[in-house]
């Protein structure tokens, strides 16, 4: 199973198109969206190419491949534009390895406030716009960063991949920023 992760699109059509293009090129089985899809949020500047309706229309074309969670900037009004569910605060995916992959945005559950997880389970979240792929205590903390507003100076827009036993964060130029073996 190959999973593609993106977070914090914030209504940017160019960022969303780049996500879709890279997702398709990766041949991943599913596109995991970790929240903040359409609204740019009151603390962020208006993103390049802000076009919430076009973002929704583009994402809807891939609805059967998308698993999404609600971000702190997502609302019921956003859900009205999308043909896949986004209003859950989390999803749990059971990996073939037996590990839980806990998907959330990061404003409720995150590296510092974790749900009950076993040793080796993974919490994947966005929200901070900061890339992470590392063991913290007994779990793996994974954040693919932001496709639109990277928070660390010099860091580029990024996404994540789970390919077999390897969990990676990559920029859209093909560089691996972080990589970790999940077993």
UniProtKB/TrEMBL annotation:
NCBIfam families documented for this protein = PRK09453.1, yfcE
Q: Which family does it belong to?
A: Belongs to the metallophosphoesterase superfamily. YfcE family.
Give the Calcineurin-like phosphoesterase domain ranges: 1-164
Q: What class of enzyme is it?
A: hydrolase
Q: Which cofactor does it need?
A: a divalent metal cation
Q: Does the keyword Metal-binding apply?
A: yes
- PANTHER family from the UniProt entry: VACUOLAR SORTING PROTEIN VPS29
Which UniProt keywords are given for this protein, alphabetically ordered? Metal-binding
User: What EC number(s) would the UniProt record show?
Assistant: 3.1.4.-
Q: What is this protein called?
A: Phosphoesterase
Keyword tRNA processing set for record: no
Highest taxon in the source lineage: Bacteria
Q: GO molecular function terms here?
A: hydrolase activity; metal ion binding
């Amino acid at each position: 199973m190959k999973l593609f992760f993106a977070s914090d699109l914030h209504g940017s059509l160019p960022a969303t198109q780049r996500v879709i293009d890279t997702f398709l090129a990766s041949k991943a089985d599913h596109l995991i969206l970790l929240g903040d899809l359409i609204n740019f949020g009151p603390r962020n500047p208006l993103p390049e190419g802000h076009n919430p309706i076009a973002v929704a229309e583009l994402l809807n074309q891939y609805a059967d491949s998308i698993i999404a969670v609600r971000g702190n900037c997502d609302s019921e009004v956003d859900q009205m534009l999308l043909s896949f569910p986004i209003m859950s605060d989390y999803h749990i995916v059971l990996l073939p390895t037996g590990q839980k992959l806990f998907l959330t945005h990061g404003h409720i559950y995150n590296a510092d406030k974790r749900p009950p997880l076993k040793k080796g389970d993974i919490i994947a979240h966005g929200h901070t716009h900061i890339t992470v792929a590392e063991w913290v205590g007994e779990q793996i903390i994974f954040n693919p960063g932001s496709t639109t507003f990277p928070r660390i100076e010099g860091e580029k827009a990024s996404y994540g991949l789970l390919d077999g036993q390897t969990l990676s964060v990559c920029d859209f130029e093909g560089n691996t920023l972080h990589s970790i073996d999940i077993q």
